[in-house]
């Protein structure tokens, strides 16, 4: 149907989870969905549809970075008509109060990306989450006793900054930026452009301050918490 997606119209549910990693999409479909079926495998950027608590839901990998996510999200919205898009990612920690395994629910997403910046010259657009999804996910995280933080995320186009470690992030940590990932700002910008609902939830997997990291085992159990939260939010369970 598109150069990047061979799903047919109607193959996706109205709500989709968006991990960067295609194998995370497979893991979500196999471990959380009932009746999961593969709907896209072009470039191995896997997409599945199934149900969660009896309600239809999809997952589609976006690849890494705002350029890649923008292709998948543009098509999910404009070709497949999706309404609710929830990123389920991993991120680095830029604030001492955020511990590994903690969730960051991105209220806003600061970015260095030309994809967002250049569309608004001379303005600096502020990409923000859908308030309904944000409030709903925060209430659920609170009720479930999860460790979570709500605030400003950095969506960077660059994983390896020239300046090493925290230095590469300049004044951002001192302005309350909680963590760094590579997609939320483009997701929020496209959702604003096409009047859809979007949210990004990330598990902090490596701290740029303490250098603490999640082990492979811990990583999976932590992601489980994030996926459950995102799925309940997606279907409004
Ligand atoms: O774990 P995912 O969802 O891929 O997210 C993070 O991991 C990748 C970098 O390692 C980037 O895509 C970043 O946003
Ligand atoms: O984009 C990312 C993701 C995880 N950790 C980082 O430092 N950056």
From TrEMBL:
Residues reported in the UniProt entry to bind a purine D-ribonucleoside: 4, 181-183, 205-206
Fetch the Gene3D superfamilies from UniProt.
Nucleoside phosphorylase domain
Please indicate which residues carry the site annotation Important for catalytic activity: 219
State the UniProt keywords alphabetically: Glycosyltransferase, Transferase
Taxonomically, which superkingdom?
Answer: Bacteria
Q: A Gene Ontology biological process annotation?
A: purine nucleoside catabolic process
Extract the InterPro entries matched here. DeoD-type (IPR004402), Nucleoside_phosphorylase_d (IPR000845), Nucleoside_phosphorylase_sf (IPR035994)
Q: Which GO terms describe its cellular component?
A: cytosol
Q: Which reaction does it catalyse?
A: a purine D-ribonucleoside + phosphate = a purine nucleobase + alpha-D-ribose 1-phosphate; uridine + phosphate = alpha-D-ribose 1-phosphate + uracil; a purine 2'-deoxy-D-ribonucleoside + phosphate = a purine nucleobase + 2-deoxy-alpha-D-ribose 1-phosphate
Checking CDD domains in the record gives: PNP_EcPNPI-like
Recall the GO molecular function terms of this protein's record.
purine-nucleoside phosphorylase activity; uridine phosphorylase activity
Residues of the active site: 206
Q: Where does phosphate bind?
A: 20, 24, 43, 87-90
Q: Which family does it belong to?
A: Belongs to the PNP/UDP phosphorylase family.
Quaternary structure annotation from Swiss-Prot or TrEMBL: Homohexamer; trimer of homodimers.
What name does this protein carry? Answer: Purine nucleoside phosphorylase DeoD-type
Recall the taxonomic lineage recorded for the source organism.
Bacteria, Pseudomonadati, Pseudomonadota, Alphaproteobacteria, Hyphomicrobiales
